[in-house]
Amino acid sequence: MFEHTVRLLLEGIFVCEITHREAFAFLNNPANQQSVNDYLGKIGLKLSRTQHGGSFFAAHIETGGPEKKAAKEVFTKIKHELRPLVAFLELVMRASQKDDVICAGFVIETASVMLSIDSNPTLRNDLQSLANLVKGPAADSSDRARFNKVLNRFKDEGYLYLANSEREIYQVTGKIEFIMEAIAFLSEHEKIGLEDEEAEVASQGSLL
Fold it and tell me: Which InterPro entries match (predicted)?
């Protein structure tokens, strides 16, 4: 399990209970955390964890040179992902008629969400706008195709996990915690400069 877990981390994957249950359980053991961290340390990396503990990932130890460039790339990617991801989460919450914060393990039932969207013109308009924000092949004119495009995009980005392909049920992964922490940071430091933001991302742990 050590080798498998390390490979996942080196691939830049967020290891959480939803997507990689066994590897997540392995990393929950302090002794295993230490052994993985010792190994990563030999190649300039460290084992990091989101603040709420829902996801592990590998991050750079140093923040200068190539590491600073990596931090900048992570920051830029986050900035580009924030708007469509937040719009998606808001759409799902409204369609699901839930007021609680979406966190790791949150279940998205495609049929149920689509039923709400089909019966609400505002939600349909929001879905169309969201589909235009999300990168990927152009969807056809149906709302279902637009929603599938959005789901596939965030599944490919690691924010969603297809828990039941037959019923098209998705679960939000632990990676959501990382992006929520980034949102909180950006909201708190709305007026600071780009260099400072990059440094903060680097200090939290820039991804591979």
Answer: MksE
